Amino acid sequence: MPDQPSRRGFLKGGLAAGAAIATATTAARAADDPAITEIQDWNRYAGPGVDAEPYGVPSPYEAHVVRRNVPWLTADPISSVNFTPLHELDGIITPNGLCFERHHAGIAEIDPAQHRLMINGMVDTPLVFTMADLMRFPRENHVYFLECAANSGMEWRGAQLNGCQYTHGMVHCVMYTGVKLRHLLEEAGIRAGAAWVMPEGADASAMSRSLPLEKALDDCLVAFKMNGEALRPGQGYPLRLVVPGWEGNLWVKWLRRLEIGDKPWQLREETSKYTDLLANGKARRFTWEMDVKSVITNPSPQAPVIHGRGRLVLAGLAWSGGGRISRVDVSIDGGRNWTTARLDGPSLPKALHRFYHAFDWDGSDLFLQSRAIDENGFVQPTKNALRAVRGENSIYHNNGIQTWHVAKDGVVENVEIS
Ligand SMILES: Nc1nc2c(c(=O)[nH]1)N[C@H]1C(S)=C(S)[C@@H](COP(=O)(O)O)O[C@H]1N2
Ligand SMILES: [Mo]
Fold first, then answer.
1. Of 46, 169, 37, which Cα lies nearest the Cα of 100?
2. Signal peptide location in the record (predicted)?
3. What is the pLDDT of residues 250-276, one digit of tens each?
4. Which of 68, 101, 175, 298 could form a disulfide linkage to 315, CB 3.0–4.6 angstroms apart?
């Protein structure tokens, strides 16, 4: 884009630094820009009234901002996954309608009046709660990310899916309202020798996992609200387990039962699935915590650079199951040189963190990378470093550094530089 020599004085003064980077797009264009010279319909006629949308929906111009699935990944959409459009979002909170969904037997459509939560097993008093019963326990609000252990799994052996929605979109972050699981377990009374909890879902897959009692008594929640409103059916309405920082599979949706025991149950989802096969044929299991990870969301394959050279704002997300993110580094040359990005917005433990990095793009090829470091000092590894330890068979727990190639024309592609 050619520089415009005749920028108007008032813009120069009024917009300060902003105007300096927007040379080609400001006052000089005004004279022949119909967006300025023509009266638009929305300026001329009154619009729909307050009763047009009793439950609000996004502008029709945002119709492309949707969850998407990858049809060839799974045999059918009932036991499948869709992905959060990370490249279209900002801040750290995922809107409810855009939270990725992972179901093993579709969405259970539950009448909350018919929903019960049972606690049985090694307890003094087996209990059954209705939803109304749960409302009489002290409530808490917490912002947490949920990441499926299989997030980025398709990228283990090399770059595959072209978009951060697909490579990293099995993550969302909302504010949950719920009751500490500890309060409910204490109400039932845990018997001596108990060490494990089995949460079970009311859906047709009866999703169940073995959860260590220590974690259950620490920060787990039984949640009924997300971002202030009832859980969405796809997220477990009316009740789900929240297991902060740990793999999504443990966050049982449509939660109907908690059994207390003295050993793990060795269920399907912790033996044949959600274990990590190593090069020597042995499998890691019980890899609960989600490792420190980050991704640049803009630019990315679905969000190319359309403005040409000059000021470019990188945006991205970082998270760690171990707590807060303390730093994110970014590289524009494939990991040779690193700069510290600017973290912005709330820094909450086990929540998404937002980072930005603004720089002047000279129009040459870029190899964008981000590397997160958490408060425990864990550093996000390269994919090669990960494969050196875990081999080539893994699917789950891929927190390797992602690379995007930005070509001179601004087109972005998923590539790998290890
Ligand atoms: N009852 C039940 N709970 C479930 C599942 C399920 O299929 N049924 N899927 C699990 C998996 S594998 C993940 S990653 C998370 C996904 O949560 P989300 O759909 O809210 O994103 O829910 C978990 N809880
Ligand atoms: Mo998952």
1. 169
2. 1-30
3. 999 999 999 999 999 999 999 989 999
4. 298
